[in-house]
TrEMBL record, chains A, B:
PROSITE patterns from the UniProt entry: HTH_ICLR (PS51077), ICLR_ED (PS51078)
Annotated Pfam families: HTH_IclR, IclR_C
Occurrences of domain IclR-ED (ranges): 74-258
Superkingdom to which the source organism belongs: Bacteria
Domain called HTH iclR-type: residue spans: 13-73
Keyword hit for Transcription: yes
Protein name: IclR family transcriptional regulator
Bilayer-crossing regions: none
Organism in which the protein naturally occurs: Arenibacterium halophilum
UniProt keywords, alphabetically: DNA-binding, Transcription, Transcription regulation
PANTHER family named among the record's database cross-references: HELIX-TURN-HELIX TRANSCRIPTIONAL REGULATOR, ICLR FAMILY, TRANSCRIPTIONAL REGULATOR
Length: 268, 268
DNA sequence: TAGCGGTTGCGCGCTTTGCGCACAAGTCGC
DNA sequence: GCGACTTGTGCGCAAAGCGCGCAACCGCTA
């Protein structure tokens, strides 16, 4: 192991990390997995893998049918504890519903985690597009209005470091895959106060996002409205949606400041 | 420990179970938790708790602000893996959307896990009611149309054992809290082919559910439409919603039979 | 039927991991 | 300043978890 330095720390519980690795192996494949397949995916020995699988099954997170394992619905408990205790659903969702209703478009709230943004609340309206993207989904930050809005208002040094680490890939012909251009884009977003994306993540999908700040003015999340270019031209997004977005931003920030501990959930 | 018999099995990885226990401790409380608080909630020693917390933080599942820990959004990965690999979203969700749209009411798909049903897909329509209930939420099986529909079509002996173990509590004045009456209700559901609930879980909420079968005719889930008594009288639910429900049931069962491995995700 | 590459389950001895005690070092309130 | 409370951490020790390696069980092919 190359991160021996960490794995051998006195406080590090290797078995927990390994067990979670086994659990996450199931997110990589659709099919039911055998012990050896999981062992290969995780890089653990077959014997160790088996112990973890048996334990996870005993705990109810996995089910098995003749030597093949699948995730059970109990696995939802682990992830959804985040949502159920965060108050996001109760607090943010209704506000998002209102925004979504007034604009007749999909709206989402997301936070930045590493190179990706994670959706934490979402109200789909137009069902045709982006059905796959739900709460908990991750998308590359650099190709999303949400990611750009967060990055633009992150502290300069931290943002630079993050952008530096990005591996910009052209997901569509319109993706901004050049670091210099991307930095320029981020500057523009900061100047405007909002971010627009047109076909950068997926052809035809356009969105406009604004940052959400904590009471200390540091950015913690982003809010966007997402639509299809065939319905709203990208250049019209600002005129049509910026005002409702800014109103909703204010609503959410007010709601967050009333529950200070919730801010922790986004950025600690 | 009273289940020493299991914990001392050779295959049982105690550290993984303990670590997950620590992670789940955060679903019990809204606030940020200190090491000692988690230790108390889990029953582990403070030293052990600390090792797990540090490990989970290192892995990104927890964040911490001066000695207090909260779940991070990465925790969603664990639960999201279940949804993203199950194909439920791609397969069931669109069908549910259609049902929900034709009925103008909330529809949900849930599975039985122990004494509770877990929502695995859901399309809320009327936003006022039951906003808290989302994917991954658990509700007592005996007070829900979904639970009754599943139980009524579970194999007799298994269903009896489950009902036996239920601790029937009167959640509302209308909850069926008597075991004999509940068994009678289940027989009625089996005879009718659908289950109706009126104010049994929450006053004012009414719903009608049908079971979803695997290709071998065993029940694996239930589908319901949920509304408010002030909008639709409980006795009208059958006439209004049973036909669309049965049509959707057929659609879902057809879709499931086309992807046999998906059935495993519900019941193994 | 016998042989063979591919699985899988599992016993066993060894080592290391993770255990909890117990001490040190802060933090608050009187 | 001195208790009563937290929290971080070093240490020695038991056992928990490790992976090797064997045996059993497939489904093929001959």
């Amino acid at each position: 192991m190359d991160d021996e330095a960490i794995e051998s720390e006195a406080w590090y519980v290797n078995s927990l990390a390994r067990g979670l690795k086994v659990l996450l192996a199931f997110s990589q494949r659709q099919e039911a997995l055998s012990t050896s397949e999981v062992a290969e995916l995780t890089g653990l020995s077959r014997a160790a893998t088996r112990r973890f699988l048996m334990t996870l099954r005993y705990l109810g997170y996995l089910r098995s049918v003749d030597n093949r394992f699948v995730l059970s619905a109990k696995a939802l408990d682990l992830g959804y504890a985040y949502l159920s205790t965060s108050g996001i659903v109760e607090l943010v969702q209704p506000i998002l519903e209102t925004l979504s209703a007034t604009c007749s478009e999909t709206s989402s709230l997301a936070i930045l985690e590493g190179e990706e943004v994670i959706y934490v609340a979402r109200t789909p309206t137009r069902r045709m597009i982006a059905l796959r993207v739900g709460i908990g989904s991750r998308i590359p930050a650099y190709a999303s209005s949400l990611g750009k809005a967060i990055l633009a208002f992150t502290e300069q040094a931290e943002a630079d470091a993050l952008i530096e680490s990005f591996e910009l890939k052209a997901l569509t012909p319109k993706t901004i895959a050049d670091p210099a251009l991307f930095r320029e884009e981020i500057r523009t977003v900061r100047a405007n106060g909002y971010a627009v994306t047109a076909s950068e993540l997926e052809v035809g999908v356009a969105s406009i996002a604004v940052p959400i700040m904590a009471s200390d003015r540091s950015v913690i999340a982003a809010l966007n409205i997402s639509t299809h270019e065939s319905i709203h031209a990208p250049q019209d997004l600002r005129d049509k949606f910026l005002e409702p977005l800014l109103n909703t931003k204010a609503d959410i920030e007010a709601a967050l400041s009333a529950v200070p501990h919730l801010t922790l959930k986004f950025r600690g």
